Amino acid sequence: MDNVIHKFEKLIEYMMALALAVMFSAVFINVVLRYLFGSGIAASEELSRLLFVWLIFMGATLAVGRHSHIGFDLIQRKLPSKLRILCAVVSHLLMIYALFLFLEGSWKQYNIGWNITSTVMKYPLAFMYSTGLFASLGMGFYIIRNLIRILLNNNKAHLAGNVIVTPDQMKENN
């Protein structure tokens, strides 16, 4: 299972790199055309906006999976183990609920978006709103997986306040 998840994460990373490259190229070409020839590509801005939104939501989803979002765990570090686990379970349940609300709203916007097209490129706005579906399902998967690990006392579970030691730090301490 971890191998499939790793390959999927790599695919997302490649898609993010491609989106960034297309955004850079579209904006750069548009700037050159405007300054040198007084014209530009009208779709450049709209394409860049769509790709930027996808880039943000793909990156946020990966960040949840890698536990690399910014967090404040000063208080949790001071709690006894049982209370830290309880805090983690409660916070995971709250995040799942919030993601459910996000999924529900994104689904409504997605359905509405099929009937509305973008101004220049004329793509259905559902493509833009599908980012919410992707992010809520992806983040939900990671959070539910970690919640199950916490409840099963799995050593791969991530608890806020745990000090993560990298292999390089381990070498320095020896």
UniProtKB/TrEMBL annotation:
Task: Kindly report the protein's main subcellular placement as a broad class.
Answer: membrane
* Membrane topology, as annotated: Multi-pass membrane protein
Q: Does the keyword Aminoacyl-tRNA synthetase apply?
A: no
Q: Name one Pfam family in it.
A: DctQ
Q: Where does it localize?
A: Cell inner membrane
Its name, as the record gives it, is TRAP transporter small permease protein
Q: Which residues cross the membrane?
A: 12-35, 47-65, 85-103, 123-144
Summarizing the function annotation, the protein's role is: Part of the tripartite ATP-independent periplasmic (TRAP) transport system.
- What PANTHER family does the entry give? 2,3-DIKETO-L-GULONATE TRAP TRANSPORTER SMALL PERMEASE PROTEIN YIAM
Keywords recorded for this protein, A-Z: Cell inner membrane, Cell membrane, Membrane, Transmembrane, Transmembrane helix, Transport
Annotated ranges, domain Tripartite ATP-independent periplasmic transporters DctQ component: 23-151
Q: Can you tell me which family this protein belongs to?
A: Belongs to the TRAP transporter small permease family.
Q: Nucleotidyltransferase among the record's keywords?
A: no
What does the subunit comment say?
A: The complex comprises the extracytoplasmic solute receptor protein and the two transmembrane proteins.
Give the signal peptide, or none: none
